[in-house]
Design brief:
Length: 257
């Protein structure tokens, strides 16, 4: 189509004013791009259970984590703060931990408190500068709290706390979500967890969960919901494989007799 229009207009270009000629050229460019897009081979549509398993992997941290998923409550085992030689670093770590404990007591429950503490320790292990940077402890704690609470669907109109309440508690100048990106990115690493969306059939049953890639930062309630998604997706995958499997000669003879 592009070539045909271009040939028809080729002899007429000299009659256009500059602005009209530019407009025609832009229109032809758009047509060319649309034509190229239509001719590009499209990948086959993915089945809903495949999208569900991919989303679960993004939330839990990979297929192995999805397979090992359970709904036992989080505990405080191994959540003690590490030994830190620098007095200033130890003071910062203690301050952030105290703020997170206070937020859990004020807005959430003990299990969310364990998830917050585990997130702090994991950040310390992965990249201590996220905790020790130039930002005050209140902003660091607000970012951790928002990231973990969002991973469990606890922030917002459908959650248990609003950002305004968290902002007031941590006494920060911006919404806690403004301080969450360094936390989220450090926990995700280089995995593209954020590019995966919830399966549409589960969007009413499940809250929007920020994918951090760690099942042990999720509460038992959330993991229980994810287990139901996993079991249905695995069952659908198995049914699909069974439906496409060709019957063996032996089974065919048995059916015919």
């Amino acid at each position: 189509m592009y070539d045909e229009i271009d040939n028809l207009l080729g002899d007429e270009r000299g009659r256009y004013c500059f602005d009209c000629a530019s407009l025609v050229e832009r229109a032809l460019t758009v047509i060319d791009r649309l034509e190229t897009e239509q001719l590009r081979p499209r990948p086959p549509e993915r089945k809903e259970h495949e999208l569900a398993l991919e989303w679960l992997a993004s939330v839990c941290g990979g297929p192995a984590a999805v397979a090992a998923l359970h709904d036992r409550p989080l505990t405080d085992d191994g959540l003690g703060l590490p030994l830190v030689e620098s007095a200033a670093d130890r003071q910062r770590l203690d301050a952030v931990a105290e703020l997170l404990d206070g937020a859990a007591e004020r807005f959430f429950d003990a299990e969310v408190g364990h998830a917050l503490r585990r997130a702090l320790l994991r950040l310390w292990e992965l990249e201590p500068l996220v905790v020790l940077g130039a930002r005050p402890a209140t902003q660091v704690a607000a970012g951790i709290c928002h990231a973990v609470a969002s991973a469990n669907g606890l922030v917002g109109p459908k959650g248990v706390v609003r950002q305004s309440a968290l902002r007031q508690f941590f006494t920060v100048s911006q919404s806690p979500s403004a301080y969450a990106p360094p936390v989220t990115q450090t926990l995700r690493g280089f995995w593209p967890w954020h590019d995966v969306s919830r399966p549409w059939m589960w969007q009413r049953q499940l809250p929007e969960l920020t994918a951090l890639g760690y099942a042990d930062l999720l509460t038992a309630r959330v993991r229980g919901q994810l287990l139901r998604v996993r079991d249905q997706a695995v069952a659908a995958a198995g049914a699909g494989q069974a439906g496409t499997r060709k019957p063996s000669p032996t089974s065919s003879c048995a059916i015919g007799t």
